[in-house]
Amino acid sequence: MRANPADDTDMQIPTARWQQLLSSAISDPAELIRLLELPVELVESARRAAEQFPLRVPMPFIERMRKGDLQDPLLKQVLPLDAELQPVPGFVTDPLAEMQNNPHDGLIHKYRGRVLLITTSACAINCRYCFRRHFPYQENRLGPDQWQRILDYIAADDSIHEVLFSGGDPLAAPDGRIARMLNELAAIAHLRRVRFHSRLPVVIPQRITDQLIAALTGTRLKPILVLHANHANEIDAVLSEALQPLRQARVPVLNQAVLLKGVNDSVEALKTLSETLFDAGVLPYYLFVLDPVAGSAHFDVSDDQARKLFDQLQRQLPGYLVPKLAREIPGEPSKTLLI
Ligand code: SF4
């Protein structure tokens, strides 16, 4: 029987270093609080919030946080808080109405010319602001039948030129599975590009392996990697070094960030993020305002404030370091620029 290239269940025994780091990610709030020498009184509320959306954070990311500092911008992205449990009007479970653009399980087709694959439900890290924190992954598994239906759907629509690998985090899938999926997609003549949206190399830089680069560059399809980093402290020397082979393999690497209150909502933080990304060979691409997902309202930055920050950023940086300030509005034919 043919192996299913998209099967979520074909996870390998974790032997690669990145897989070991992935499987040993911290999921107990008490453990995170102990490692970072934070007040033990936080444990109870963190556990309550984690019941709705679990804590998950790998050690290489924790090692970039400051001990004893509740204001650490990396910690704020992962620490479950009571505030997540307060309902806020306008903050909903499917803020982008993705389920209205879901022609097949595992496939979202919102914009002309490109489709998005829910490659896997797995993530290396659970970001508290995630717009898919309530996504029905169980209903969107890529079993053999679903994968074949997706291939047929793409093959039947020659306006589709690009496939986005999303998730979850698509790079949580093993390299062999990624290679097999790319090979099958490459057989569809009208496809030109594949784009991977991933936070995994940011939180576990060891994810950039020779095998991954071979998979990404092993077909005629042009690969693009879009990282998700929100603060300059996420980009350390280990990540910069890990990204080098991608540049050598001529894989364009871009970054998209989310504007998050308490994390990067200052001109200095955004400026340093752009400059640090560029030093690591990564081009700033998008700065998104928060999608109003239930449980994330405490990260919200108003549009007015976002525009003021962006205006300052434009005055202080060369154009190629200024990401596009945008939001996604359900039903619109593209992202909506705020400026
Ligand atoms: S890595 Fe991406 S998909 Fe996963 S929780 Fe974070 S924002 Fe959401």
General description of the model:
Helices cover 30% and strands 12% of the residues. α5 links the parallel β2 and β3. It has 339 residues and is an alpha/beta fold. It has a 9-stranded mixed β-sheet. The protein has 2 domains: 67 residues, no CATH class; 251 residues, TIM Barrel (Alpha-Beta Barrel), CATH 3.20.20.70. Bound molecules: iron/sulfur cluster (SF4). The site of iron/sulfur cluster (SF4) has 11 residues, from loops.
Notable traits:
339 residues, alpha/beta, nine-stranded mixed β-sheet, 11 helices, 9 strands, globular, binds iron/sulfur cluster
Short summary of the structure?
With 339 residues, this protein is an alpha/beta fold.
Q: What would you report as the Rg, rounded to the nearest angstrom?
A: 19 Å
Query: Order of SSEs, N→C?
Result: HHHHEEHEHEHHEHEHEHEE
CATH-defined architecture of the largest domain: Alpha-Beta Barrel
By CATH's scheme, which homologous superfamily of the largest domain applies?
A: Aldolase class I
CATH topology of the largest domain: TIM Barrel
The helicity comes to 25-40%
Tell me about the biggest sheet? 9 strands, mixed
Q: DSSP helix count? A: 11
Which CATH C-level class of the largest domain is it?
Answer: Alpha Beta
Bound molecules: iron/sulfur cluster
Provide the β-strand percentage band.
5-15%
Strand order of the largest sheet: 1-2-3-4-5-6-7-8-9
Number of domains: 2
The outline comes out as: globular
Q: Secondary structure elements and their pairing?
A:
Layout: H1 17-23, H2 29-35, H3 42-52, H4 59-62, E1 107-108, E2 114-118, H5 144-155, E3 162-166, H6 175-186, E4 193-198, H7 200-203, H8 210-216, E5 222-227, H9 237-248, E6 253-258, H10 267-279, E7 283-288, H11 303-316, E8 324-327, E9 336-337
Parallel strand pairs: 2-3, 3-4, 4-5, 5-6, 6-7, 7-8
Antiparallel strand pairs: 1-2, 8-9
Helix pairs in contact: 6-8
